[in-house]
Amino acid sequence: MAGLRVLLCLGALLARQGSADSEAVAIGEVHENVTLRCGSLSGSRGLVTWYRNDSEPAFLVSSNSSLPPAAPRFSLEDAGALRIEALRLEDDGNYTCREVLNETHWFPVQLRVTSGPAHIDVNISATGTLPNGTLYAARGSQVDFSCCSAAQPPPEVEWWIQTHSSVSESLGKNLSANSFTLMLMSKNLQGNYTCSATNVLSRRQRKVTTELLVYWPPPSAPQCSAGLSPESANLELTCNWDGGYPDPTFLWTEEPGGVVVGNSKLQTLSPSQLSEGKKFKCVGSHILGPESGASCVVQISSPLLASRPMKTCLVGGDVTLTCQVEGANPPARIQWLRNLTQPETAIQPSSRYVITQQGQSSSLTIHNCSQDQDGGFYFCRAENPVGVRAADIWLSVKEPLNVGGIVGTVVSLLLLGLAIVSGLMLYYSPAFCWKAGSTLRGQDMGDVMVLVDSEEEEEEEENKGALAEVVGQETRETEEELPKEIGKHGHIHRVTALVNGNLDRMGNGLQEFQDDSDGQQSDIVEEEDKPV
Ligand SMILES: *[C@@H]1O[C@H](CO)[C@@H](O)[C@H](O)[C@H]1NC(C)=O
Ligand SMILES: *[C@@H]1O[C@H](CO)[C@@H](O)[C@H](O)[C@H]1NC(C)=O
Ligand SMILES: *[C@@H]1O[C@H](CO)[C@@H](O)[C@H](O)[C@H]1NC(C)=O
Ligand SMILES: *[C@@H]1O[C@H](CO)[C@@H](O)[C@H](O)[C@H]1NC(C)=O
Ligand SMILES: *[C@@H]1O[C@H](CO)[C@@H](O)[C@H](O)[C@H]1NC(C)=O
Ligand SMILES: *[C@@H]1O[C@H](CO)[C@@H](O)[C@H](O)[C@H]1NC(C)=O
Ligand SMILES: *[C@@H]1O[C@H](CO)[C@@H](O)[C@H](O)[C@H]1NC(C)=O
Ligand SMILES: *[C@@H]1O[C@H](CO)[C@@H](O)[C@H](O)[C@H]1NC(C)=O
Ligand SMILES: *[C@@H]1O[C@H](CO)[C@@H](O)[C@H](O)[C@H]1NC(C)=O
Ligand SMILES: *[C@@H]1O[C@H](CO)[C@@H](O)[C@H](O)[C@H]1NC(C)=O
Ligand SMILES: *[C@@H]1O[C@H](CO)[C@@H](O)[C@H](O)[C@H]1NC(C)=O
């Protein structure tokens, strides 16, 4: 019969001793209909009467039509079977069918009425809840799992765990309630936890599956840094706060002011967002992290240069020019140049030019110095997205000291000088000689000087913009007792010094030249941001 849910177990567990028919057990669910059979016979029967046997038998229904059933729920079916509609929990009990034919037979039937489980209560603590309802627990924490369910008869309650890539594993069965505790949560305990409640009679089952994630915050404080983005060479801020799960979120702001710059771990800044000394703050937030987030600050700055302004090399010898960059964040790219008006044509390493860089210190080693190729200005140029600076180094190439040669040179110079002086004295009047002598006091070699000076001046005209960039911190620091007389014509002094090999004087001359004549321009160049 359709809709009739009967689970009939003949000769089931509780066999009765001494009975002709083995005990029958029928199982029905509450609110449903059940049919109890009168013995194992089928076909037409004698007079069949059903009783309920608890403390004493109670009449239920009979095939004698003059006897009405005890309640409308009870009726007889084919072959004397008892049908009970809309089962109630109190229908659970022992029933007897009496059949009267030539002789009377008694058939006992046990009816088990089951119900549920209708619902399961699962409590997992202590955990947090994500916006989508998923639970998470902190790594290392203790988590209590409890599950209970009600049913008739009491259900079997079982916990199952299924972690990533493993099969479901039972954590044990109990009746009605089941609980266990995981003391130290770890990543491999992240998974789906299922509690099932099963009615042992009806096999009706309910399950609740809860996904439990195991989270942990990054172990240390975030670290901010500035660098170059690999593809665009723009400034890239990095907020390093690794080791947590799931990944934290980031917020970059400008400090002070708190203007939001972006919200990713790597933040690329456009050149317009950069200026000297600007600070950027990264606040990292993790679901298990500190409430207010963990933060770090990075300050960007353009490079400062320190280098010795002068170097000497002997012809055929080696010389190393060094340039130390300080305070550059992100680290600067350091290049060596001969001509600042052609910034692209940096000195390329070759057999004669060896460039080594250690951290923010770069050295240019020139092998086999030659006077005509190597003497002159060298520029160390340091650039990062915040700014660019250049410092100059003057390299003078000298013949190796040779006593015989020096003596010979001195003697021949003296002779030459004498010849010139006497020639002049002979050519001009004595009065003129006296005047010239006093004006040019201390500047013997005047002729040579003028000759070189004109070349130098031309070059300087061409390189005016370039030289403006030359002023570095280091040259300012050496600014001391400068001869006041060196003013507009500082470059002339420099040339003089070069010819005479008087390096100190040359340094001062250069110093004065830059500070007096081009000071303003230099400042502008120093403040200049990265050129696009
Ligand atoms: C039980 O029997 C009644 C009457 O035949 C029927 O209306 C009802 O749907 C049945 N209930 C179930 C759960 O089958
Ligand atoms: C049920 O009641 C009948 C009549 O009183 C009795 O003979 C029989 O032994 C009882 N059965 C049980 C199982 O109690
Ligand atoms: C049916 O029940 C009535 C009333 O109890 C009784 O008089 C009659 O004898 C019964 N019939 C049979 C066949 O037992
Ligand atoms: C039904 O009978 C069984 C034995 O056959 C007995 O254990 C059980 O207690 C009885 N149930 C009731 C409700 O009397
Ligand atoms: C029952 O009685 C009828 C006649 O009343 C008889 O024919 C039949 O054999 C009997 N059955 C048994 C099992 O005694
Ligand atoms: C879950 O269990 C915890 C303690 O084990 C208790 O504090 C909390 O109230 C329970 N929550 C529910 C919904 O029962
Ligand atoms: C809930 O969100 C977490 C984190 O985003 C995710 O891992 C999990 O699968 C989500 N759960 C569901 C049921 O969507
Ligand atoms: C589950 O059963 C075990 C024994 O099998 C018992 O020690 C434990 O206390 C039970 N737990 C619950 C929640 O019933
Ligand atoms: C938990 O079950 C859901 C749904 O089947 C699945 O997407 C998720 O990956 C499972 N989680 C784990 C940790 O196995
Ligand atoms: C520097 O480069 C410019 C442009 O090519 C050139 O005109 C100038 O002569 C160069 N100066 C030196 C000293 O090489
Ligand atoms: C050094 O350079 C000169 C010319 O500039 C060349 O003749 C000589 O061979 C070079 N010496 C070495 C060791 O390379």
Automatic annotation (TrEMBL):
<keyword id="KW-0393">Immunoglobulin domain</keyword>
<dbReference type="InterPro" id="IPR013106">
    <property type="entry name" value="Ig_V-set"/>
</dbReference>
<dbReference type="Pfam" id="PF13927">
    <property type="entry name" value="Ig_3"/>
</dbReference>
<dbReference type="InterPro" id="IPR007110">
    <property type="entry name" value="Ig-like_dom"/>
</dbReference>
<dbReference type="InterPro" id="IPR013098">
    <property type="entry name" value="Ig_I-set"/>
</dbReference>
<dbReference type="InterPro" id="IPR051170">
    <property type="entry name" value="Neural/epithelial_adhesion"/>
</dbReference>
<feature type="domain" description="Ig-like">
    <location>
        <begin position="32"/>
        <end position="98"/>
    </location>
</feature>
<feature type="region of interest" description="Disordered">
    <location>
        <begin position="456"/>
        <end position="483"/>
    </location>
</feature>
<feature type="domain" description="Ig-like">
    <location>
        <begin position="303"/>
        <end position="396"/>
    </location>
</feature>
<dbReference type="InterPro" id="IPR003599">
    <property type="entry name" value="Ig_sub"/>
</dbReference>
<dbReference type="InterPro" id="IPR036179">
    <property type="entry name" value="Ig-like_dom_sf"/>
</dbReference>
<keyword id="KW-0677">Repeat</keyword>
<feature type="transmembrane region" description="Helical">
    <location>
        <begin position="406"/>
        <end position="428"/>
    </location>
</feature>
<keyword id="KW-0812">Transmembrane</keyword>
<dbReference type="Pfam" id="PF07679">
    <property type="entry name" value="I-set"/>
</dbReference>
<feature type="domain" description="Ig-like">
    <location>
        <begin position="117"/>
        <end position="209"/>
    </location>
</feature>
<feature type="signal peptide">
    <location>
        <begin position="1"/>
        <end position="20"/>
    </location>
</feature>
<keyword id="KW-1133">Transmembrane helix</keyword>
<dbReference type="InterPro" id="IPR003598">
    <property type="entry name" value="Ig_sub2"/>
</dbReference>
<protein>
    <submittedName>
        <fullName>V-set and immunoglobulin domain containing 10</fullName>
    </submittedName>
</protein>
<feature type="compositionally biased region" description="Acidic residues">
    <location>
        <begin position="513"/>
        <end position="532"/>
    </location>
</feature>
<keyword id="KW-1015">Disulfide bond</keyword>
<feature type="domain" description="Ig-like">
    <location>
        <begin position="218"/>
        <end position="301"/>
    </location>
</feature>
<feature type="region of interest" description="Disordered">
    <location>
        <begin position="506"/>
        <end position="532"/>
    </location>
</feature>
<keyword id="KW-0472">Membrane</keyword>
<dbReference type="InterPro" id="IPR013783">
    <property type="entry name" value="Ig-like_fold"/>
</dbReference>
<keyword id="KW-0732">Signal</keyword>
